[in-house]
Amino acid sequence: MIIDCHGHYTTAPAELESWRDRQLAGIADGNRTLPSPAPKITDDQLRETIEKGQLRMQQERGSDLTIFSPRAAGMAHHVGNAKTSEDWSRVCNDLIYRVSELFPKNFIGVAQLPQSPGVDPRNCIPELERCVNELGFVGVNLNPDPSGGYWKEPPLTNKWWYPLYEKLVELNVPAMVHVSNSCNPCFHATGAHYINGDTTAFMQFIQGDLFKDFPTLKFIIPHGGGAAPYHWGRYRGLAQMLKKPLLQEHLLNNVYFDTCVYHMPGMELLAKVVPVDNILFASEMIGAVQGIDPETGHQYDDTKRYVDQLPLSDADKAKIYEGNARKVYGPLDAQLKKRGLI
Length: 342
Ligand SMILES: [Zn+2]
Fold this sequence. Notes:
Order of helices and strands: EHHHEHHEEHEHEHHEHHEHEEEHHH
Number of domains: 1
Bound molecules: zinc ion
CATH class: Alpha Beta
Strand order of the largest sheet: 4-5-6-7-8-9
Distance between the termini: 9 Å
Number of helices: 15
Helix content: 40-55%
Mean pLDDT: 97
Structural class: alpha/beta
CATH superfamily: Metal-dependent hydrolases
Strand content: 5-15%
Radius of gyration: 19 Å
């Protein structure tokens, strides 16, 4: 089985965005025009967007199951307040759940959390529990910067985040560290803010001692780990200067990288630098970088083509494609069994 651990519902019906527009208009006019509890979207509409979009691409490219979450840029935690985020997260997560019910063999949910700048992350726990316990989700996207490019929260290793981590550990679900849109004009969202977020999280983990307190907590750093693999020597050296253990012992029982790297040399570097046990297959399709690479004639985000070409054994590729995801996403095996996939 080929599990893509990083996909977003970027093709959701337009009713979702118009619900969001009404919600934000309600904030602007003092909540006088609150939208209905949920956008009116039929199962047929969901089927159509998925069948023409992510499902078609799964089939064309040869992957089987996508670990699927709401559109990352759409989370926009910096907008409104905690209640705004709570309502919006619920609406987005419910749509992911419906997709995972309509296509149980192809999509499984990961939750958007109702984060809000400066708000204690304990506020995310009820939605996290609902998504895992009631909707069968297997992970969450955790935004290290709900301010949208201004980095106002404490580092991910700060005790500020601990109540949320305690719940993630209890539920045995990992968090993908995933920023949302940038409202700082210095940072292009997917070109700079995403990669900055990934790199920043990795360095925060080096500086802290988070995994002494949470030895089973697991994070996936997306987009190939940002700049971390390319600058692995810098990070190993900094860990040494900070009197931290070697990265293997300090982080690599807890931190994983996905394969959302959109060219072969980058993928080769990732696989050369990061142990194969810490790499999870992902494409983030249909996502940030769409289009055909004129050098290859294929879509940039068709990452399976690159992984297939890596000089690794079949056993190692099986870890990247399936085994590591089943290890990292605690409830995944139970969900795969329930869906008749294993
Ligand atoms: Zn993403």
